[in-house]
Design brief:
Length: 429
């Protein structure tokens, strides 16, 4: 088993100025893998998750499964999981605090035990991130829910199929509903659901497990069954990793080929890249060439939205790109209330960005310069790495455990494309 340790004193040292060239393979999607890993808890049969990235979040999810009594092992890019005999219906705070997606264990534990105790995920650096929709849905399906001492307690003698309208579009909320209701006998209807590719990948898995699921507009119909079976599934490529490398090519004036990519998941991102002067050429069924057409990066305006709109998870990376555009851009963050923490760090590198409420006004500058910067969340950190690739001189990026949560071997992949980036550990005297 491959092991990547993540020390909080690790940092990246990036020497800017290299144009990226060559090809790189995109890993399986983090945000698709996590709910699929939790789906394995719905059955006692063996499950295979192919192309599950070897990331901190995935390893934390597997630690949680192990704590609950499931067995898992990795061979290369495949995970083999069997949750035959679960021994606990409680998820401890020390694991949940590292990974919000642990809340996806609620449904499977309730189905297997008739009760579940799940540590309540707190807010995080990008916003408050409440779970009111999850709780409302579980109550509607017949669970008695109480919140005490930071834990959500759920109990249900009998779960029932439901019709449920989400008050807002939530990715994990939709996934939690799918996991629960696929195991509940009868017909459920969900409205105003998230339709991110990661949600659709989970639907594919639940169908393989025996649930009948239809999706149209933002409505899902589920015919659940208590007899869900094992499955084998290849996770979709990570669209956010792909998008991050696309921006890396444009920002450095590079010319790269991405392998294992599903362009149909990247419509809004490609649209914006083209407005900024990028060329995206499909050169095979899952290979794409990305390069910059001219000498300049053009400004553009971005509004983050639910899929198929522009993803919030690409906002920070575009902020770095547009910091170097020849004009003024506006970026509005509509999904999370506090996802502009990278702005302070980019400003230290010489970017000219002003925040007005939910909108950042980015005045392109000719160049930025290397500095010591701090990662605040996963995608903010990716934005800082991109900025480091073009900054004059050296950029030191600290607190990179955030990056370990969501990018598989980002330094190795960037080095393969010709970037100068090193992972180092601070040694205290
Ligand atoms: N919300 C509520 N109540 C709820 C649920 C959500 O108010 O019960 C709010 C949230 O606070 C937020 C908005 O609704 O303002 C959307 O949140 P959503 O539930 O869709 O986000 P999530 O499921 O917690 C997933 C991804 C995020 C990604 C968002 C948006 C996973 C594990 N996480 O989070 O990914 O940003 O969807 O697309 O799938 C990342 O990978 O870096 C990351 C943060």
């Amino acid at each position: 088993m491959m092991n990547i340790t993540s020390s909080s004193s690790d940092f990246y040292l990036v020497e800017g100025g290299k144009r990226l060239k060559g090809s790189v393979r995109v890993s399986g999607s983090k945000n698709a893998s996590l709910p699929i890993i939790f789906a394995t808890l719905l059955t006692s049969e063996s499950c295979t998750v192919q192309e599950a990235p070897n990331l901190l979040d995935v390893r934390n999810a597997l630690s949680l499964l192990e704590y609950l009594g499931a067995e898992s092992y990795r061979v290369g890019e495949n995970l083999y999981i069997k949750a035959e005999r679960l021994k606990s219906h409680e998820t401890p705070h020390h694991i949940v605090r590292k990974m919000r997606a642990s809340i996806l264990s609620m449904g499977p534990l309730l189905v297997r035990f008739g009760e579940a105790v799940v540590a309540m995920p707190g807010g995080c650096s990008i916003g408050l991130r409440p779970v009111d929709q999850h709780i409302k849905l579980f109550e509607r399906a017949g669970a008695r829910v109480s919140i005490k001492h930071g834990y959500i307690y759920l109990k249900a003698d009998k779960l029932k199929p439901i019709e449920f309208d989400f008050d807002l579009v939530t990715v994990t909320g939709t996934e939690n509903a799918l996991l629960l209701l696929s195991a509940v006998e009868g017909r459920s209807i969900l409205r105003n659901v998230a339709i991110e590719p990661e949600v659709l990948d989970l639907i594919e898995v639940l169908r393989k497990m025996g649930a009948e699921i239809e999706l149209w507009d933002r409505t899902i119909e589920i015919r659940g069954t208590p007899n869900l079976t094992g499955f084998s599934h290849r996770v979709i490529p990570d669209r956010i990793e792909a998008g991050t490398f696309m921006v890396a090519s444009l920002i450095t004036g590079g010319d790269i080929v991405l392998e294992n990519i599903r362009l149909e998941h990247l419509g809004s991102v490609c649209g914006k890249l083209e407005e900024c002067g990028g060329v995206i050429e499909k050169i095979g069924s899952n290979r794409v060439r990305v390069y910059r057409k001219g000498a300049y990066i053009h400004p553009t305006n971005i509004q983050t939205q639910e899929y198929p709109g522009f993803p919030t998870d690409m906002q920070a990376q575009f902020m770095s790109l547009l910091s170097l555009a020849n004009g003024v851009s506006e970026i509005t963050e509509n999904i999370f209330e506090n996802r502009f923490q990278h702005v302070a760090e980019l400003s230290r590198m010489g970017a000219d960005i002003k925040i007005h409420g939910r909108t950042a006004v980015v005045r392109g500058v000719e160049k930025i310069s290397g500095a010591e910067v701090f990662s605040t969340d996963l995608r903010a950190s990716a934005g800082l790495v991109l900025a480091g690739l073009v900054a004059e001189g050296r950029t030191t990026i600290r607190d990179i455990y955030h990056l370990d949560r969501g990018y598989e071997f980002i330094d190795k992949k960037l080095r393969k494309l010709g970037a100068s980036i090193e992972r180092l550990t601070e040694h205290e005297d």
